[in-house]
Design a protein that fits this description.
Blueprint lengths: L4 E7 L2 E6 H17 L10 E6 L9 H13 L4 E5 L8 H6 L2 H9 L4 E2 L10 H10 L3 E2 L5 E2 L9 E6 L2 E9 L3 H4 L14 E2 L5 H14 L4 E7 L11 H6 L6 E4 L5 E2 L4 E5 L2 E5 L1 E2 L5 E7 L5 E9 L3 E9 L8 H18 L2 E5 L20 H14 L3 E5 L10 E4 H7 L6 E7 H11 L11 E4 L1 E6 L7 E3 L5 E4 L7 E6 L2 E2 L5 E7 H4 L14 E3 L5 H12 L3 E2 L1 H4 L8 E4 L4 E7 L7 E7 L5 E6 L6 E3 L3 E3 L6 E5 L6 E6 L2 E2 L6 E5 L2 E5 L1 H4 L5 E9 L2 E9 L2 E2 L5 E2 L2 H30 L1
Parallel strand pairs: 3-4, 4-5, 5-6, 9-11, 11-12, 12-17, 20-32, 21-30, 25-33, 38-45
Antiparallel strand pairs: 1-2, 3-18, 7-10, 8-9, 13-17, 14-15, 16-17, 18-19, 20-22, 21-24, 23-30, 23-31, 25-28, 26-27, 28-29, 34-35, 35-36, 37-39, 39-43, 40-41, 40-44, 42-43, 44-45, 46-47
Length: 736
């Protein structure tokens, strides 16, 4: 042991000495006291942020989510519950009361924050604002504002949890203009009164992030309804992350994809690809999204160590068993009201009609399907138009085999959009098809299902020629670029760009520029006196199909071949040199897609008789005429049976390719029967046969020639001898 004295400090000349052992004991006690003081502990329990997106009225998962959240609370884990948009629309329960039942359930769930998705505006902006006031949770959006720039809702919120401040920033997609309905954001004069800040998109988001940090946020979680697959490139989540900094994690929606994080995962050619997103400072930002219909919900775990550490877990609702009884009762009540309102049986379906594949991925948004055909067929039948167009974003769910109710078909077209007919030129229709195919093969709500019309999408054209405005609405098709859509046929005939056609569809695309289809907005309306889209689907089944969706008509999942995808170069003729008898010709083609040139050789012309081949001369005063496709100036000789003829006396030549006429005076010298004529040109020759039946001698008098002439002469002699015998016999009898 140490027992010697140690000088610690000196005050006022008094030397204070402590035994070293006592000093060490005091210091140990001092540090133990410090450990007990209320200081921030970095090795804390992670904070759980539970999140949903694109629920689209898929209520059934809410009770399991509520039960899971309660289990975390019971375990002493702090939670936040957020939604990344598109929750009040997608099924009839949403349509029935324009989202109010959904908001009531979310209120009972104790959501903390939500961002408006594009479909939150489907019941028009005033109704969304009413729902926002009804909600006990807080809607956030940094970029959805009044047109004058004033805020409609807070751009961000800060929540303090376990002594840490987390900032939540809301972001809406500017695609809401076209993926809801553009006129909903305009006044009666067509002026936009709301904006999604598309012209200052990144700067507006960055300002919200900076403001949240300035307010003390230690971590920033973006809640965005912006998406990846099928979204406008400059408005994708990737683009947002790459053009901002300060965001630690991004909870996404809109594209209905499942990515647990930290990377964006996307299936490409059957292989799951991973993509990391980095901000302007080169820092990776955690990315996650849960899919759709509440088949999953996410759990983002944030831990301060002291740097922000983010992890996540994707929970499959199907794997959970516990349900919150209060939420389950609300869901049951909502579904009962929905069934009572829409549950009437109207027929049966022999086949499944597809909007989505069996795994829930969209089909109708990038290919023809039998349900897309059914929709367009119904519009065409009900209106009697020339063609019908159906935007794929309006086809919301499958129709299963078996009994079909009104609810089943209204769920396909849940918005009750007005069906109508307009007049549009073939060129306008071509532009609409091109606009619809601009994102192919990615999913696109503007992809057009059709009836009365067929078309092809050429994937060799990798870049769309469509020009859009800042809000995603169609402006034009760049005439210097090749089109993707080709071989458009109306009733089997090539579409005439200058002809006017009657086009059926919903006014969502035909009048209100939905999905950016602004090319139709000034087209004259022929009629709007039709039922809603869902009612037309019901009438088509009950009246036209007599209550049966047959396998014969709709048995092919991929439709009836109205939309074909081809992968081929498209060549156009730019030059042609016709062949001659002396040299071949060619046709030059240029691929209008990539500029590749190719040539087609046209073989040298072969000499041929155009007239008079295998002709016959019957002994008249007429010439025997032949016409050959050679140039008269290249003619060298004419031979009959190998004997060279004299031009002028035995034959004559006229223009008209080459017209050769054998003279009667020459023909009468030929024996009766078949002869061969050969016409010799500079670059070749051609032969044919002709026949002679008789020859002319003198004017109006014919004589037999060759062996046949001798037969005729002997016949006459015999006739004379016979007559002489008859006369001689007559006189003998008379004398007797």
């Amino acid at each position: 042991m140490l027992s010697y004295s140690y000088q610690i400090f000196q005050r006022g000349g008094i030397i204070m000495k402590y035994n070293l052992k006592k000093y060490l004991s005091l210091m140990t006690a001092f540090f133990l006291v410090l450990l007990l003081l209320p200081i921030r502990v970095w090795a804390s329990t992670p904070i759980s942020i539970l999140y949903t997106n694109d629920v689209h009225c898929g209520l059934e998962g809410y009770s399991k989510l509520a039960a899971y959240r309660q289990s975390l609370t019971d375990a002493g884990i702090s939670t936040v519950l957020v939604d990344a948009g598109d929750h009040v629309q997608g099924e009839l329960i949403g349509t029935m009361d324009q989202g109010e039942s959904i908001i009531d359930i979310m209120n009972q769930m104790n959501y903390d924050y939500a961002v408006p998705g594009n479909h939150e505006f489907d019941y028009k902006v005033p109704q969304f604002l009413s729902l926002m006031n009804r909600a006990t949770f807080k809607y956030l959006s940094a970029n959805f504002k009044h047109a004058d720039g004033t805020d409609i809702m807070d751009a961000y919120a800060i929540k303090e949890i376990d002594g840490h401040k987390i900032g939540f920033v809301g972001i809406c997609t500017p695609e809401s203009y076209t993926k809801s309905t553009p006129v909903y954001f305009q006044d009666a004069s067509g002026n936009y009164v709301y904006t999604f800040s598309e012209d200052t998109f990144y700067a507006t988001i960055q300002a919200a992030v900076d403001a949240a940090k300035a307010a003390g946020a230690e971590a920033i979680v973006a809640i965005g309804h912006t998406g990846m697959d099928g979204s406008t490139e400059e408005w994708t989540t990737k683009a947002i992350i790459e053009n901002t900094n300060g965001i630690d994690a991004y909870i996404d929606g809109h594209s209905h994809e499942v990515s647990a994080g930290p990377d964006y995962t996307h299936m490409e050619n059957g292989v799951l690809q991973h993509y990391s997103f980095f901000n302007k400072d080169g820092k990776q930002v955690f990315y996650t999204q849960t899919g759709t219909k509440l088949k999953n919900f996410g759990e983002l775990k944030i831990e301060f160590t002291p740097t922000v550490q983010v992890t996540s877990v994707m929970h499959s609702v199907a794997d959970l068993t516990d349900k919150d009884s209060t939420i389950e009762a609300l869901i049951t009540n909502a579904r009962q009201r929905e069934t009572a309102f829409f549950g009437t049986e109207i027929g049966t379906s022999e086949v499944k009609l597809f909007a989505k594949d069996d795994d829930g991925t969209w089909l109708v948004r990038h290919q023809e399907t039998n349900l897309g055909d059914y929709n367009a067929d119904a519009y065409l039948w009900r209106t009697g138009a020339d063609i019908a167009l159906m935007n794929a974003g309006g086809v919301r769910t499958n129709v299963n085999v078996g009994t079909v109710t009104k609810k089943d078909l209204i769920s396909v077209n849940p918005w009750m959009n007005q069906v109508g007919v307009i007049e549009a030129t073939g060129q306008t229709i071509l532009d609409a098809l091109e606009h619809g195919a601009r994102f192919y093969p990615n999913n696109n709500g503007g992809y057009l299902q059709v009836a009365g019309l067929t078309y092809e999408i050429n994937t060799k054209v990798t870049t769309s020629p469509v020009v859009e405005d800042s809000k995603g609405s169609f402006l034009s098709v760049d005439p210097t670029k090749p089109r993707r859509v080709q071989n458009v046929l109306v009733c089997g005939e090539p579409i005439d760009p200058n002809r006017t056609y009657r086009v059926a569809g919903t006014f969502y695309i035909l009048q209100y520029s939905g999905d950016g289809m602004s090319m139709f907005k000034n087209c004259p309306v022929i009629s709007g006196d039709y039922p809603s889209d869902a009612e037309v689907l019901i009438e088509y089944m009950t009246q036209k199909l007599n209550g049966v969706i047959s396998a014969e008509a709709y048995g092919n999942k991929d439709g009836n071949g109205r939309i074909k995808v081809v992968d081929e170069n498209r060549f156009v003729e730019v030059e042609r040199v016709e062949p001659t008898h002396s040299a071949p010709g060619y046709i030059k083609y240029v691929c209008e897609i990539d500029g590749t040139e190719k040539y087609e050789e046209l073989p040298k012309l072969e000499y041929a008789f155009l007239e008079g081949e295998n002709g016959e001369w019957a002994g008249t005063n007429d010439v025997l005429k032949f016409r050959i496709n050679g140039d008269e100036t290249d003619l060298q000789n004419v031979l009959v049976d190998g004997i060279l003829l004299n031009r002028g006396t035995q034959y004559t030549v006229r223009h008209g390719s080459t017209i050769i006429e054998l003279t009667p005076s020459y023909l009468q010298t030929l024996s009766v029967g078949s002869h061969t004529m050969t016409v010799v040109y500079i670059n070749g020759s051609v032969s044919t046969t002709f026949s002679v039946r008789r020859a002319v001698v003198g004017s109006g008098r014919t004589v037999a020639t060759s062996d046949n002439s001798r037969v005729q002469m002997w016949s006459i002699a015999c006739m004379i001898a016979l007559m002489s015998l008859l006369v001689s016999a007559y006189y003998r009898i008379k004398k007797a």
